[in-house]
Amino acid sequence: APAAIPANDRELVLDRRLAAPRAAVWRCWTEPELLKQWFAPLPWTTADAELDVRAGGTSRVVMRSPDGDEFPNRGLYLEVVPGERLVFTDAFVAAWQPSDKPFMVVELTMADEDGGTRYTARARHWSVADRETHEQMGFHDGWGQCASQLETLAQSL
Amino acid sequence: APAAIPANDRELVLDRRLAAPRAAVWRCWTEPELLKQWFAPLPWTTADAELDVRAGGTSRVVMRSPDGDEFPNRGLYLEVVPGERLVFTDAFVAAWQPSDKPFMVVELTMADEDGGTRYTARARHWSVADRETHEQMGFHDGWGQCASQLETLAQSL
After folding, report:
1. A116-125 and A11-18 as β-strands: parallel, antiparallel, unpaired?
2. Which domains does chain B have, with CATH numbers?
3. What ipTM was predicted for this assembly?
4. What percent of chain A lies above the pLDDT cut of 90?
5. Most C-beta atoms within 10 A of its C-beta, which of A65, B132, B137, B153?
6. B102, A102: Cβ pair inside 8 Å?
7. DSSP letters along A96-116, please?
């Protein structure tokens, strides 16, 4: 398949073939003990993860910097299709309570491809400025490194 | 029951007992030909309504001013519990495409009360400024007038 590209100037895309089974990739996104092993780009780590994986359910993931500072991230799942599609956003902190800042909605899709998994993450923003900020924060390097960490873990399951 | 009040300074609430059956109130919100008869505060009218009433489905409602100008409003349903709860927002124009301006999420609940319906609408905003703007646009008068129009129609069904 041709590589996925952004649909517009508010979207960032990571698109990879992962050499791991789709079911394992899904588990890495939805089981807290697995997510904690790959979700932050090393040397950052994931100190804690609580995932209520259902439409309207919330997530809380705490990232830890190399200096030991912790950064909690709260989100909400908008759509859950096991093994295929996971959509979440920071626009709500609970069903249906607006957050202080709606920054992005992420649509993850997974599909079988040549014995591995086509893994596509689309991060869509409410403004071009937020897309630019996210890109400058290192979206491509960060998500790319995490995808590699995810692939390694998924291969081991 | 005591009247519902805003949970915080980003929320506006309309809370009424309607002298109409809950099933009829639900129909007025979810059937386009009914919604068109009450949704705009007269002398405004509703020129068109397309409602895909399911989680992730979209709505398009066109309001018409007394001068004949038309104003389309697009929204997306986040949660649909038939006869009980309807949640929608303008933060998405489709599943899951961010809109240009996430302004509010509305949570409507309906419950049986004394042979009629306890009807509660909570409009939650992403900022205090947006809540103030909505209040100054006439939220209470507008939603109140529409609730009366809705009640009259629901009684006739």
Report:
1. antiparallel
2. 14-156 (3.30.530.20)
3. 0.92
4. 97
5. B153
6. yes
7. TEE-S---EEEEEEEEEETTE
